[in-house]
Amino acid sequence: MNTRTLAIIKPDAVRAKRAGKILSMIEESGLTVDAARMFRLTRELAGEFYAVHKGKPFYEGLLDFMSSGPCIVLSLSGEDAVARWRNLMGATNPEAAADGSIRKLYGTSVQFNACHGSDAPETAASETAFFFSGAELP
Ligand code: CMP
How many CB atoms lie within 10 A of CB 42? Predict the structure, then answer.
């Protein structure tokens, strides 16, 4: 089934000029980029986006990181897009990520892990709506 997911190329990867390489990997994987925007999250918006992690030890650091510079937010679609994008990203901790995955290649720590992806179709719908209006999507 054709589904959507939300991808973020995080500030560490944008700063390191890895965005083009990551976009190429997405396109080569067969996923489609339906919408894209370069966006600097405020700390407040980062807090809203990652509200599910509030109270965890890494939460405050995550907000500092995600508001530290621009990221590139992408709406992706394709057959089984949520799982395919998560597979392409690799495990949250780059040390545990599979060889060839984006986090293995470009992540430098469990916090500075280069990219984000929705973890389920329901999350994908709410995360996509967080950044894109319906009119921006095909
Ligand atoms: P992401 O997939 O965007 O989801 C939540 C983010 O929190 C995660 O990627 C990491 O950037 C960060 N994160 C998750 N676990 C930890 C941790 N143990 N220590 C620091 N940051 C973490």
Answer: 11
